């Protein structure tokens, strides 16, 4: 099974970690910005990442990919079967993929990616997102995190993974999230990053991140 994409992408990281949690072996092939192997070019009609290549089966979009993986390897599903837990998991994935990512992209792109792409960074937009948007999102997470430390079902699920992935990227270029102001969120993020599946993914992407930050 092949995952086409760039490891530092929150969406690609989500799929890589999800596969590891499900015990699925994947090969990661670099792709994006209209460049990549044949499987990527065929599987991503709009140039998005990640793309899954499973034999002759091609699938684009991280949500679609993890849904496929969860069904393909049943067991302790990362998307819980209980109706309320499942619904909340889908909400938290949407929260991470759209709400957090919208703010986080302004911060991470302008502080880390723009120069590598030879584009002028909008540092003012990054600063505004950090000051105006992210505190509201951290406040929200602080208010909804259960005492168990996991967002849904008292265990690590897609909810935690999807919500954490864009925040991890923000943390590469921002030290705003502190345990003093958001103790539950900080502890939750540390707990997510400590999982072997996440730690392995972060170790693999570290050279790429360092290259971006050194541009």
Question: Would you mind describing this structure in some detail?
Answer:
The model has no long low-confidence stretch (mean pLDDT 96). By secondary structure, this protein is an alpha+beta fold. The chain is built from eight helices and four strands; from the N terminus they run βαβαββαααααα. A hairpin with a 2-residue loop joins strand 3 and strand 4 (57-60). The relative contact order is 0.14. Strands 2-1-3-4 form a four-stranded mixed β-sheet. The protein is globular.
Strand order of the largest sheet: 2-1-3-4
Head-to-tail CA distance between termini: 33 Å
Number of strands: 4
Q: How does the overall form come out from the CA principal axes?
A: globular
Q: Please estimate the helix content.
A: 55-70%
Number of helices: 8
User: How would you characterize the largest beta sheet?
Assistant: 4 strands, mixed
What's the rounded overall pLDDT mean? 96
Flag low-confidence runs.
Answer: none
Class by SSE composition: alpha+beta
Strand content: 5-15%
Fold blueprint:
Blueprint: E1 2-4, H1 10-21, E2 27-29, H2 38-43, E3 51-54, E4 57-60, H3 62-72, H4 83-113, H5 123-144, H6 158-173, H7 183-194, H8 196-213
Parallel strand pairs: 1-2
Antiparallel strand pairs: 1-3, 3-4
List its salient traits.
215 residues; alpha+beta; four-stranded mixed sheet; globular
Give a brief rundown of this model:
The protein is an alpha+beta fold and 215 residues long. 60% of the residues lie in helices and 7% in strands.
């Amino acid at each position: 099974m092949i995952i086409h994409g760039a490891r530092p992408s929150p969406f690609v990281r989500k799929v890589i970690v999800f596969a590891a949690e499900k015990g699925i072996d994947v090969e990661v092939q670099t792709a994006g910005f209209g460049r990549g192997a044949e499987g990527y070019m065929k599987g991503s009609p709009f140039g998005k990442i990640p793309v899954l290549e499973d034999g002759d089966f091609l699938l684009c979009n991280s949500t679609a990919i993890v849904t496929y993986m969860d069904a393909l390897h049943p067991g302790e599903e990362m998307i819980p079967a209980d109706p309320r837990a499942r619904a909340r998991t889908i909400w938290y994935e949407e929260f991470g993929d759209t709400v957090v990512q919208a703010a986080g992209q302004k911060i991470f792109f302008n502080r880390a990616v723009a120069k590598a792409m030879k584009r002028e960074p909008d540092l003012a937009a990054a600063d505004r997102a950090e000051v105006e948007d992210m505190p509201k999102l951290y406040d929200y997470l602080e208010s909804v995190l259960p005492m168990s430390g996991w967002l849904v079902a008292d265990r690590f699920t897609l909810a935690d993974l999807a919500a954490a992935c864009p925040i991890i990227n923000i943390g590469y270029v921002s030290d705003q999230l502190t345990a003093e102001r958001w103790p539950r969120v900080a502890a939750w993020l540390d707990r997510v990053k400590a999982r072997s599946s996440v730690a392995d993914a972060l170790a693999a992407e570290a050279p790429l991140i360092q290259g971006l930050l050194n541009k």
